[in-house]
Structures
1.
Amino acid sequence: MAGREPLRPFVLAARFFRIGALNELQYRANFAIQVFQSAIALGTGLAVLALVFSQTTALNGWSEPELLVVMGVHILMGGLIGMVIQPNMVRLMEDIRRGSLDFVLTKPDDAQVLVSVRDIQVWQAVDGLTGAIVIVFAVAQLGGAVGLGQALLFGLAFVLGGLTIYCFWLILTVGAFWVVRIDQIVELFEGVYQSGRWPVTIYPGWLQVSLTFLVPIAFAVTVPAQALTGRLTLGTLALAAGFAIGLMAFTRWWWRFGLRRYSGASA
Amino acid sequence: MISPQTSATSSEPAIRVAGLRKTFNVPVREPGLRAAVRSLVHRETREVRAVDDIGFEIGAGEVVGFLGPNGAGKTTTLKMLSGLLYPTSGQAFVLGHVPSKREAAFLRRITMVMGNRNQLQWDLPALDSYELIRAIYRLEPAAFRTTRDDFIELLDLADLVHKPVRNLSLGERMKVEIVGALLHRPQILFLDEPTIGLDVTMQKRIRSFIAEYNQRYGATVLLTSHYMADVQALCRRVVVIHHGKILYDGELAQLGARFNATKTIGVTLVDGEADLSAYGEVISVEDGRVTLRVSRAAAPEVAARLLRDLAVADLTIEDPPIEDVIERVFASGSEAP
Amino acid sequence: MANGLASRPELDRDRFVPRAGLVRGWVDLYLTMFRVAILNNIQYRVANYFYMIGMIAEPVIYLVVWSTIARQEGGEVGGLTPGQLAAYYIVWTLVRQMNIVFTVYGWDERIREGELSAMLLQPLFPIHRDIAFLAGWKLVTIVMWLPIAAVLTLIFSPALDVRPIDVAVFAVAIWGAYLVRTMLYWILGMASFWTTRGGPIFQLMFTAELLLSGRLVPLSLLPDWAQRLADVLPFKWTFGYPIDALIGQLPTGELVGGLAMQLLWIVVGVIGVRVVWRVAIRRYSAVNG
């Protein structure tokens, strides 16, 4: 079904976003709070960068505006995760645990698509916007013009990164619910995700590998940032694309496998 | 000679309440954005009188039922008496203490059980929580063990207290919870719906435990319950409260006489059913038995007429069920200004 | 039946430990609470361990960034070598565990679930519950931390030069840090008595703490004005100071002075908790109960 209508997930997501927005508009205070929190987070990030560059001029070859790009991508991707991926996965895990997933399975849409877009945290868009502004500001500081080609490359790398992170979350959600509690996974992920504030190339080898293939922070943040700072090689992009596609295929299979187990358990 | 360390003398009632009042300010929300913004600056509130000038005295060792529909002010009153809520005005004395001061000496001598209260460690056996309660109340170890084992035996909890509380059923949990609430052997028990949600056997069990505790230690009990069976089994005296005011304070047995000027007469005729509507309001006709409702005053006369006019095989005169009486009390209360 | 109270005055005397046993009563209370906390912790040891390991991500990130800079800048940043930074962030992981106190977000639930009422009905100032429980919890945590520290030591080869007095002061300071932070967060958390939207206030505090406690970076890397600011705030005494006490080669005066500062903040905290608690409970008793 997803194959026949490739845009279906986005159409559904847009629809859920609209519903979420209409609901949330009643609670404008939440918007103010989100703006405040995003501002604090941004301020903290900038303070850290300032600290680093009070001691040095470049971190592992990355200049200050370049690291600002990384930070912008990190915030933008964080906004996407917080807006769509994380809330849906948290809800999915609760549904699996309570056995209330049946409501979703009986809907005529593709279940995987549905569980992935039905809960959208509208105000998290503020984070996304903050990230975008930081990126634009940083790119302007870089001086050298970012061409259309680079922008397109960035867009592609960002979408691939987003899909990779989504697959990572879904695999974890389907597979790990009987081991640990969801709030612990969330907390754990948020901790590890902070590593993406910096290019993963600064980490020691074993950690770099883990942050690339185990928890794909590299693909989610570093690679798109590389695209904007003229560092992205064709090889890296091919690897990102290959990894994303492979992971999506595996996730599809894993989701079906988990679903069979779920139906078996609840029958 | 050392004088006993009790604040209440024998002439002083265990609980004395006079002119007690509690009003809450509830925010009033008008619809619309403008009103919402305005409410940020100036909040309009409405005063709700949860408890409105009540007064009563309860003697040491008495078990009193506190009756009233939801929102009547029962829980608010119990909370004021246990020191959780400050009264808006009026006086409350419990064992000579002012509850809202929440002095340790006061708290050690009372307990409050609420339906969903959980003072036990969820993941540990109740026995471990009991030890903690012993430490918090600074109970003398030997006396504590005696009390604990007594209670465990009375409620037949020997197996349950070794299991983690999370593995217990609702009723089992309530039993271990009540034991926990009484380990310090309080002199006053405030029980707010202690049997809510439990099955009948479990209700009986808890009821008889409370009765036993009252007998054994001469404790004063103030109890609210949705189950009239609780009240009937435990309380000779009831206080009926509605819209924050006391409608009735007296013996449970007299409640019917006061508020329900009716009796029910059951008649079985020798030659089958007949239309008895001339004698009173027919409530039911079943298997040849007719049930009539008549005014309390007229009951003897109607019964005599029935016996005289008809061939009666069997005749009974009864008070209506207490639930009906209570319903009537509340109905009359809501009509009152 | 109505003779209960009058005829049983002896009830009071055989139930309660006499006043002479006041100290024993407190010791007994804390020990009993330790036991409950340890039993609780052991029940969830796997999940807790998982959690502790997850918390390592944060200092490892800081460590990598700052040791990268140190190597770039000729082996030192702000006077710290990569080895010293490694030592700092490894001790950090234990101090972070000691820093775990009752969450400011927990008050809202305590109020809603009636847990607070249950606490108010007991003859015990509720902070003792929290202090004793989490202290008992940490007794297990410290033991569980040792293997983690060993693994981190193997990976990051810290430069350790520790004197016995450092260990002694550290052993006291981590508990001082725990007490200071407990009271700080108690006072902050009580904002929940006034608003259910305490989030922004809490977050401001977290951020100030992150930057000025020594959690994000050793305080010596901060600009002068920030260091001076940190000196007058309590955060530093809950994080940076205990770490420096162990590995910072502090002169004895500074070691003892730090303990004195912790004591000062504990006193301030006790007063603050008492005052705010009284106002908060008055409010609670007026509306919630």
2.
Amino acid sequence: MNKIAFVISIAAASATGFLQADEKINFNRDIRPILSDKCFACHGPEEASREGGFRFDQQESAFGEADSGEHPVVPGKPDESELIARINSSDADDRMPPSETNKPLTKKEIELLTSWIASGAEWQDHWSFIPPTQSVPPAVASSQRVTNEIDNFILSRLKREDLTQSAEADRSTLIRRVTFDLTGLPPTPAEVKAFLDDKSPNAFETVVDRLLASNRFGEHVGRFWLDAARYGDTHGLHLDNYREMWPYRDWVIQAINQNMPFDQFIVEQMAGDLLPNPTNDQLIATGFNRAHVTTSEGGSIAEEVRMRNVVDRVVTFGTVFMGTTLECTRCHDHKFDPITMKDFYSLYAYFNSIDGNPLDGNKKDPAPVLKVPSPEQKTKLEQLTEEVAKLQTELNGDWPELATAQPIWEQLIGQESAEGDVDWAVIDPETFTSSGGAELNLLDDKSILASGPNAAKEIYEVTSQLEGAGWQGVKLEGLLDKSNTNGGAGRSSNSNVVLTEFEVYTSAIPEEGKEPDWQRVKIVKASADHEQGNGDFKIGNAIDGKPATGWAIEGHAKKEPRKALFQTEKPFGAEGHSLVKVVLKHESIYGQHQFGRIRLSLTKQQPIRVEVPAEILAIIKVKAEDRDDKQKNQLQKHYREKVTTDGKFIAVRDGLAAKKKERETFDKTIATTLIWKEKPKPEPAFLLTRGEYDQPGDGVSRRTPEFLPPMEEGFSNDRLGLAKWLVSRKHPLTARVTINRFWQQFFGTGLVKTSEDFGSQGEPPSHPELLDWLSVQFVNDGWDVKKSMKRMVMSSTYRQSSKVTPELVTKDPENRLLARGPRFRLDAEMLRDQALFVSGLLVEKMGGPSVKPPQPDGLWFAVGYSGSNTVRFKADKGDDKVHRRTVYTFIKRTSPPPQMNVFDGPSRESCTVRRERTNTPLQALLLFNDPQFVEAAIALGERATNEGGEDPSSISRQMLWLTLSREPTSTEINALVAGYQQDLKFFQSQPEAAEKLLAIAGQPIKEDLDKPKLAAWTMAANLLLNLDEVLTKN
Amino acid sequence: MTNTTQLCTGFSAVPSRREFLSQFGMGLGAVALSQLESSQSAVAESGVLQKLHHVAKAKRVIFLFQAGGPSQMDSFDYKPVLNERHGEELPDEVRQGQRLTGMSGNQSSLPLVGSPFKFSQHGESGAWLSELFPHTAEVVDDLCFIKSMHTEAINHGPAVTHVQTGSQFPGRPSIGAWLSYGLGAENEDLPAFVVMVTKDKGGQPLVSRLWGSGFLPSRHQGVRFRAGDEPVLYINNPKGLASENKRSMLDALGQLHALELKKNADPLIETRISQYELSFRMQTSIPEATDFSSETAKTFEMYGEAAKNPGSFAANCLQARRLAERGVRFIQLYHQGWDHHGDIPGGMKRQTKETDQASAALIKDLKQRGMLDETLVVWGGEFGRTNYCQGKLSTNFGRDHHPRCFSIWMAGGGIKGGMSFGETDPFCYNIAETPVHIHDFQATMLHMLGIDHERLTYKYQGRRFRLTDVHGHVLNDILA
């Protein structure tokens, strides 16, 4: 922990120091950074905070007259320049920058500013806002190793700094380096040996081409993009539930493997939905703008969340494509770069018109989404759809038997009335109770009104005296009341009711002081005047004995009193007096869905005369010739669905229902992914004062930032136009920013170190001409990613030895000048993948749902919301889940996997284009002790034993080969053997320790293996998986 | 690490190390590396601040964070008017059209509710406390109550993030990360920033970003100490291995690293060596720090029986004291469960039963050990609660989120004890006197540690960021 602190901080402090060789002052490199950092805050782009009436980011203003009448800069005349006078002033009140800013100029900076003005104050616009031009690569001495143009630029700079390039790395190091860089995995010993043996002049190129063609390429290179795109498997806020968009992750990997031109890669992600007849793949790509974190926290204000979502899209757009920090301009004009708040909200206007709720509903698939069936699923679904259609056609066909039978039925029913002739006796309740503590009051019409406490679930019980025998029907009326929600029949927030069970009991009048002996009266039939249609809410559910199902009245849509009739199996009651009890249960998952006012009646007649709903009966009452089409259809539908007894028809009808259900069930197993769908009409956008969602100012329309070239005419002014604008030749940033990230990937640091910021506060490029040359070449090559990466790794610069000498570390501690090859710790994913790969555990299955390899218990639970569906981590089982490449590991964004997090892997909550690279003791603990790494060590021990033969030296040699990808030295072999023998003694003396250690492996160890030996080799393997050379790209 | 220049270049140190190692050849004994390392690690890791901006009053902070938003009216901010006007509608002139959350925003009625708890005065300072805090009542003369805290955030996620990072939006470093970055560690064998979450609480979620390092290097992020036999992730050796196995392994690793160093003088290799040695020392120092067996019965009596239950708030308070003794810079506790939208009477009782005694015990314990003067202790949540009830008025009423005022207390570390700062109006809705924003609180905390909050900055994306954004004033009135 401690030493790294120094190494990093000191290296950072001197990063630009060495870049200033003895040459003439360059405004962009030497002067602008000073002005930007020390002066722009008050004399820069932001109008609101500008002092003195001049700005240092514009030549005209800096050289012109300030409010005071003085000229800040008079070229060639430091003595007349107010800037120089003020930075040297001995009067503390006069001296710039003001002391309260805590940004004093150094002596060196004052000298630089003075000599810049003295030498004529040559001005340059900010480098990254000028489109790159392809300069001619500088000539270098023939003695140097030049593979391609990259080397010309690097070597010519090295010469100026009086440095020379390092020798080419030895072949083993080289193939390990390039294999890691292009696939994220080390080479196999066989691959290394083949390369060592290949004497042809293009041996290295052969390796590079093989790696570029490998599917592992996309899995490795793709994850850098997934960091930038903030891809994760949960919403990222509050409940942080599962959210499904792994098809987007697979799209990225595939697009990179197919070497999709990078301009197309950008356009499809930015605006795939706006392309003509977009393919599914193009729609999946639009997930890029949906990958931001979302929420549905209770109490969230939708408008505020919408604003935050859009802001994330705009900020990510700025960082990923343009290396521009837009975040500040949400609230005010940029303090350092010429970006106004209006620019920000004009970009905002491109991203605010998604057709979907800003709140995610805690669902895995908040709209708009796309279903993404696999080819097999697609076939199966088509087959099911076809079968459904076939049955549907059959069902819709002619059924002469039914046509004949229906009018006969109609006539029969028509004679009956629903309940017209039935005499009902209203129950006069004696006792009535509420399980939820509601206050129940009996009204004059003998109905019972509930008020006060309104529990999530509610059971009403009503008892009454019963006179005589022969009762066989109960009527329930759910009445309207102004004290109910919206004056309807229910007490829920939308006034709907779900009655889950309706029960009737009788009892003889008990003796004084005794409880009634309630006997259940079986109900066999029920009918209601209305049933909610969207789901299973039939009245029959209220008498099925299942608390989960119920009758819903659709009270949220229909403000009507409701009526339900219940028929008992046998007549109930007794001569003289007895008791009756009616129980109404409201116990569905829908909270508070209870009736607010009920009335009960009894009849001795058969209550349900006809089994048709009132609305059907009404149609039957209309003469056949007077019915309109709608009525005819409704009647026929009812007859065919509910009444007919025609066996053949029923077989088809029920077969269709079953098939539809099958298709529906199957459909739910198909993955979905979040995509973009534009609203038909763009949403208006406003300048939001101080960035507050509820403080809209002037309206703004879509437009690109003014400091950049305008959008070409002919482009549509939408996201598609915006994407095309990004990748047009005139755009000064997109290609540079992209190329810089590629460079960073291979060399550890970008040509522009601050790969997220190409503005004036960012660090200027170490090799500006090279960056421009590469960027222009990239565009000339049709944005060919593989070609441009190949160019980088083929260069002699890349192929140098990474050996560090005292001279090099003094002159160039960060290796920005590249007098040596890149050398740095492998990324989190590479470390885990390497351990799985060298031990032979890795399962190379591409794509599919994210997987959950084991992690320590309790990490999710500690931060998780109890109601979240990711509150408890449950590791997957099976090699094809736990031994996959890390790019497929499930990322819960509020608690990312420790194997990632401990090694600087981002949480994917926001866009990351540059990872930190730290070294901490917690990393050592993880690599030593994490069961997954121990499991890999066991497997590696076993593998080396199997492949290395009997002799400890040869086993040791094989293990070293697997991990180091090179011929080990005898010293190394001996060291490992010595350690092995020491450990072997320990395990032989304590075989139970070996048992315990080996039990960490996922599978049982083969019985015939010598466990103490394997345990000792496990220790050796564990050690090698912690070796600096193994953890490092050398 | 006395000789920093040597290690910064990584170079002057290397040859001697190399020579040293080569003397031992392949028979390197177990002592060699560890000796070498310990001679280098006498001084703990230092932070980015070469020297403090002013004399520090506090060396460290223990922050007892009460997540969910404890009700100020039922704890420290006594408001008899609410009892007098219990059930009356919240007057419009008090509310002044302020926004409400989506939860009570559509309530037709906002009836005021008085606290169901008795209030009385305590200590020489006469601090008003509800009956739920009998133990805190015993230490009020050491506490400074701030009753005029306020924030902008109205929901938990943004509000907690605001307190812990100075911004409602994710991505900024947390307070502990800033301190680790600025001040470094006092004890290099332990992390500078430790986080403990009361186990099995549930309720509103926490996020690991709350103790994250944001854009600061990730080594500054909080290390979570957990209940159970693995107090820090991966601290335990694999099953079957003993410490001496690890030692011999490290020695073998050291030999191989020494060989590598011979071939390549990259300072990173040195870093790797020290990283592994430090991890080994942590395997001793962390179990030692988390082993309560040396604590006396009297101590457990003070913190309460719950302190024997690992992972409870009481146990975490005791753990906090042990870490403070061992030089951990920032000790962050989280206790969830204060989000009482319903059942204030029952909920507050449960929560205070879990926290009152141990919080007070921590103050007493630090004081008796002479550590309170140099340890800043903070107790509070992310916002307050409404003076009106959520839903209909009933006996088990709840209160909604209220960002416009809330109460916290601070103690020790140069804070004036036995005082109350800031006042709310009689309805406990708006602040009547000396509002204290989150950023003021943060500025004050840094001030106690000898840091000018405007001068501890980190340049990221072209801007110098700081904990207090562009705001914050030190509360000079509460400094001892």
